[in-house]
């Protein structure tokens, strides 16, 4: 008999969310995390009065299921909403220009030429087209024009996803826009129909964090009753057994083993591939084909008086053609009032990504100097920062390049050969914290159904000896 109903390998936000949804439904969970603390790359640091994030800096949510988790996990009192309705900016010909949020303002905005605005108006006349493997660049240029792609969509894809629109899958990266074309034949017509049907409210997003930073979220999930968290345990091998899965791991105390009815791998794609390679080589190869973007996160704390710009927004994104050091800059102290000491501001820049992968390897001095020079030109910032913190991620975000939906479909087809085995991670259906919480809900639902039905299919065949670690 299995030792535990569910074992989750990987204690990042995907694994923690899956564990929380399962525990909420009364299902016991054991969770292994190789690091000495849960949360994966989500880590908040309070230092010299500044609160910085190692990776995800905020939660942008429009899913009621995520609100449900926040409420039921007791996080609502600690949720920190952004301060006011803040502006968003784009860099345009070397200066910051406010992004218009309504159609009348868009008509007057200097961000786009008259020809680009007329092209937008004609979008409703563009026939359906494209293929399943159409790139973001091709989709946007076909429907909205080249200028909108270069000035708006490219900086969004590069700045928020660290991706390249020429390579990124439109269906994977812009699922709501591609769905509007499929259903209505036009993005514009789809938006208008949704508004007439009063679906607009569904699409409104709430931007928030938590008191103490995003780490408050992962620590709360890790402390959920019914979730047995074991840190410092690295999975080394696995095999199917009658009644579930056997997993070997190693910790400071030596080798360990656990038998589980249901197994979830919530690790990065390469780590999951290493565990699955002896059992299913085609599945492992599919996982290894998923690239990750390198990213550097640079936090700069400065005196407010040294920046003449009002900082009346959430920050700005940078089109490739502007040739700046970074892809985007968040004004964290404008978003949340606990991010910097009184009289100071915290500016967070994101460098590298698929657009400029080698920049991540540059020296701290070079990254800081180039960033300060660009902030000086855009914000009028002067003088040296009072605080600097640099985080480097060689494999930060999975890239949904190529026909990513087809790859994910193949991965799921391969998983059907291994009942009781689940994958839940950012390389599947969304890299954001919101989507990974939602993936956790779906994974927990499948596990709950499997445990309730008691359905098992153990005709898996012999297990290669290589699947077992030495001494297992």
UniProtKB/TrEMBL annotation:
Residues 13-447 form the Amine oxidase domain. Pathway: Porphyrin-containing compound metabolism. Keywords: FAD, Flavoprotein, Heme biosynthesis, Oxidoreductase. Its EC number is 1.3.3.4. The keyword Oxidoreductase applies. One of its GO terms (biological process) is heme biosynthetic process. Its cofactor is FAD. NCBIfam families: proto_IX_ox (TIGR00562). This is Protoporphyrinogen oxidase. It comes from Sedimenticola thiotaurini.
């Amino acid at each position: 008999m299995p030792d535990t109903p569910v074992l989750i390998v990987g204690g990042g936000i995907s694994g923690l969310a899956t564990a929380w949804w399962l525990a909420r439904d009364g299902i016991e969970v054991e969770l292994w995390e190789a690091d000495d603390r849960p949360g994966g790359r989500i880590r908040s640091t309070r230092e010299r009065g500044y609160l910085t994030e190692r990776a995800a800096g905020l939660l942008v949510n429009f899913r009621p299921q995520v609100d449900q988790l926040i409420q039921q996990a007791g996080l609502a009192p600690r949720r920190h909403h952004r301060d006011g309705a803040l502006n968003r900016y784009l860099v345009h010909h070397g200066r910051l220009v406010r992004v218009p949020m309504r159609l009348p303002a868009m008509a007057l905005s200097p961000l786009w030429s008259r020809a680009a605005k007329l092209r937008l108006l004609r979008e409703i006349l563009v026939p359906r087209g494209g293929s399943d493997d159409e790139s973001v660049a091709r989709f946007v240029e076909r429907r909205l024009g080249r200028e909108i792609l270069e000035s708006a969509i490219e900086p969004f894809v590069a700045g928020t996803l660290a991706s390249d629109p020429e390579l990124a899958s439109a269906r994977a990266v812009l699922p709501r826009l591609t769905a509007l074309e499929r259903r209505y034949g036009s993005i514009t017509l789809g938006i208008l129909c949704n508004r007439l049907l009063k679906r607009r409210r569904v699409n409104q997003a709430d931007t928030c964090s938590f008191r103490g930073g995003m780490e408050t979220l992962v620590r709360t999930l890790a402390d959920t009753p019914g979730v047995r968290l074991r840190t410092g345990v690295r999975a080394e091998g696995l095999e199917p057994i009658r009644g579930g899965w056997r997993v070997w791991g190693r910790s400071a105390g030596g080798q360990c083993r656990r038998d589980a009815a249901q197994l979830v791998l919530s690790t990065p794609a390469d780590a999951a591939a290493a565990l699955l390679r002896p059992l299913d080589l085609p599945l492992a190869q599919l996982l290894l084909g998923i690239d990750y973007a390198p990213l550097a996160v640079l936090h700069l704390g400065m005196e407010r008086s040294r920046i003449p710009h009002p900082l009346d927004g959430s920050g700005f994104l940078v089109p490739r053609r502007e040739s700046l050091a970074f892809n985007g800059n968040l004004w964290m102290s404008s978003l949340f009032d606990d991010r910097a000491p009184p009289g100071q501001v915290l500016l967070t820049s994101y460098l590298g990504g698929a657009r400029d992968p080698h920049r991540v390897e540059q020296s701290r001095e070079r990254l800081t100097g180039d960033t300060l020079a660009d902030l000086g030109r855009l914000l009028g910032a002067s003088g040296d920062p009072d605080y600097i913190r640099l985080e480097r991620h060689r494999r930060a975000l999975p890239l949904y390049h190529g026909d990513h939906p087809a790859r994910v479909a193949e991965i799921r087809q391969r998983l059907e050969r291994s009942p009781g085995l689940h994958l839940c991670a950012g390389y599947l259906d969304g890299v954001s914290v919101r989507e990974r919480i939602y993936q956790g809900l779906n994974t927990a639902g499948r596990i709950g159904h499997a445990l309730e039905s008691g359905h098992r299919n153990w005709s898996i065949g012999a297990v290669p000896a290589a699947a077992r670690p030495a001494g297992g």
